[in-house]
Amino acid sequence: MLRIAVPNKGSLSEPASAMLHEAGYRQRKDRRELVLVDAENEVEFFFLRPRDIAVYVGSGKLDIGITGRDLLLDSGSQAEEIMQLGFAGSTFRYATRPGTAKDVTEFGGMTIATSFAGLVTQHLADNGVDASVVHLDGAVETAIQLGVAEIIADVVETGTTLRNAGLEIIGEPILKSEAVVIRRTGAPEDDPKVRQFLRRMQGVLVARRYVMMDYDIRVEHVEKAVALTPGLESPTVSPLHHEGWVAVRSMVPSKEAQRIMDELYELGARAILTTGIHACRL
């Protein structure tokens, strides 16, 4: 069986389980369940702390896992990213009191507090900066107020929490993170079970981004219509019983569906319908 690590809690947990469910895999009904065997799909799921997943996968104990890019890089494990999953996006940045420093090149001799000590240590080394790193669990914005550090490095969404603490974001982002699928570095790339898993996950990503659009249009307007709905390869065009009309079917980006429907209507298209896509293979 393919052995897969899944986050058991936190912001990664629910979206990961939802995506796996959409991909046709069984998911646990009880949060206390730590191992789930999906015999029909020949997969065994292990529900672990997100921060530990890269360690298990990197050691070869588990085949692949779902975790955050930030957690993967912070772990220092022998694991690598093989697919982006498009959820749990975040930006990791430095912050400090106004006037302390402008960017990472001015951090020499200072102390940085963070929950991602490995990631920050590597970033400082990459920039040739000699500074101390203090590891803290949980919120780190009070570290400056309490004199533990001059700088903090943390996940930033809107920046409101930092501003309320009297801090400002400085420098370029350390990292832009999201949920990713990982495997052990150097693992065989042609594993058929892993390839099947990735195809399923890719199918979910596509199904979430696209809808199927159907419409009827006069033959003389087909070329203009299909220019609006080119599909992934080419739309399906079928003659209708009513002479001079055809039916067109094509996948279109869901975010653009309403605009495309308006433009098709102006071209003379009628019976314009959109339907959700639950699964696909490209």
UniProtKB/TrEMBL annotation:
Q: Which residues form the ATP phosphoribosyltransferase catalytic domain?
A: 49-203
* Reactions listed under catalytic activity: 1-(5-phospho-beta-D-ribosyl)-ATP + diphosphate = 5-phospho-alpha-D-ribose 1-diphosphate + ATP
| Enzyme Commission number(s) of this protein | 2.4.2.17
Needed cofactors, names only, are: Mg(2+)
The cellular component terms of Gene Ontology attached to this UniProt record, alphabetical and capped at eight, are: cytoplasm
The top of its lineage is:
Bacteria, Bacillati, Actinomycetota, Actinomycetes, Kitasatosporales
Q: Could you tell me which species this protein originates from?
A: Streptomyces chattanoogensis
Q: Which residues form the signal peptide?
A: none
Which InterPro entries has this protein been placed in? ATP-PRT_HisG_long (IPR020621), ATP_PRibTrfase_cat (IPR013820), ATP_PRibTrfase_CS (IPR018198), ATP_PRibTrfase_HisG (IPR001348), HisG_C (IPR013115), N-reg_PII-like_a/b (IPR011322), N-reg_PII/ATP_PRibTrfase_C (IPR015867)
Query: In what way is its activity controlled?
Result: Feedback inhibited by histidine.
Q: Which CDD domains match?
A: PBP2_HisGL1
What is the recorded name of this protein?
ATP phosphoribosyltransferase
Establish whether keyword Cell division is in the entry.
Answer: no
Per the record, the similarity remark reads:
Belongs to the ATP phosphoribosyltransferase family. Long subfamily.
Pathway field? Amino-acid biosynthesis; L-histidine biosynthesis; L-histidine from 5-phospho-alpha-D-ribose 1-diphosphate: step 1/9
Q: Which residues form the Histidine biosynthesis HisG C-terminal domain?
A: 207-278
Per the record, the gene is hisG
Q: Where in the cell is it found?
A: Cytoplasm
UniProt entry keywords in alphabetical sequence: Amino-acid biosynthesis, ATP-binding, Cytoplasm, Glycosyltransferase, Histidine biosynthesis, Magnesium, Metal-binding, Nucleotide-binding, Transferase
Q: One short Pfam family name for this protein?
A: HisG
